[in-house]
Amino acid sequence: MNGERGTARLTARGLVRRYGGIEAVAGVDLTAPAGRVTALIGPNGAGKSTLFDCLAGTARPDAGLVLLGGRDVTRLPVHERVRLGLARTFQQIAVFPRLSVAENVRVGAEQRPGTRRHREAGAAAERTARALAVLGLDALAAEPAGEQPTGVLRLVELARALAGEPRVLLLDEPAAGLDSAQTARLVTVLRGLADTGMALLLVEHDPDLVTELADTVYAMADGRMVATGPTATVLADPRVTRAWGGAEVTG
Ligand SMILES: Nc1ncnc2c1ncn2[C@@H]1O[C@H](COP(=O)(O)OP(=O)(O)OP(=O)(O)O)[C@@H](O)[C@H]1O
Hints:
The protein has helices spanning 48-56, 78-83, 101-109, 121-134, 150-163, 180-195, 207-213, 231-236, 238-244; strands at residues 8-19, 22-33, 37-41, 63-68, 71-72, 86-88, 168-172, 199-203, 216-221, 224-230. By secondary structure, it is an alpha/beta fold. The site of adenosine-5'-triphosphate (ATP) has 11 residues, from strand 2 and helix 1. This is ABC transporter ATP-binding protein.
């Protein structure tokens, strides 16, 4: 796996997505390499979620390409991208409230290619157990998801994504609602996943978390990339600090 570190796993080329007269994503290039944590930052309305939707397949770009492991997936629906190794968590938490924590995670384990075809129920159970353990959720496995606090539900969503053993993981504000202990665990888990060769791309608002986690940062404003590069360099870029402070981006 580590031999692949740095190889592009998910690539956007010239992506454009319009809503009516608004270019929410206005010609964007981005690469999430294997074995790295890549962060996407920018003020509200910058286009981060729209770009995520185009990468995950929940939105179709009006122009440009999405490549997953070198394969053009621009026109493939979400479930095909999942089969090719893409997983995602959402800004708005979505769990099945009446299912247990473990059953919610199992949903992710069963989306893995070949699970049904080969009747790999045992393997799906193992993947579920592994994902629960990685996120420290074993003790809550049998509890109804609907009774858990937000912090736990974020971890359940992440466990569900991991249970499919993806090669590319998209995370939309993964630390929102987590307390400091859960955030520390999340950081350790995400770094550990990158070390296994997974490509991680996260949308994040907290500069401290971005500094702690990300190898590379893409900063968006008004649908465009305003700065890209190593985390410390991008976070110190005046165009980025202005945009994050809510002021107009001019450059
Ligand atoms: N479904 C939609 N219909 C119309 N306009 C949309 C839609 N989704 C996003 N937009 C517009 O596209 C632009 C980019 O929005 P987007 O949600 O992608 O930004 P964001 O960077 O993710 O913001 P936030 O940090 O608030 O989630 C905004 O002007 C938004 O109003």
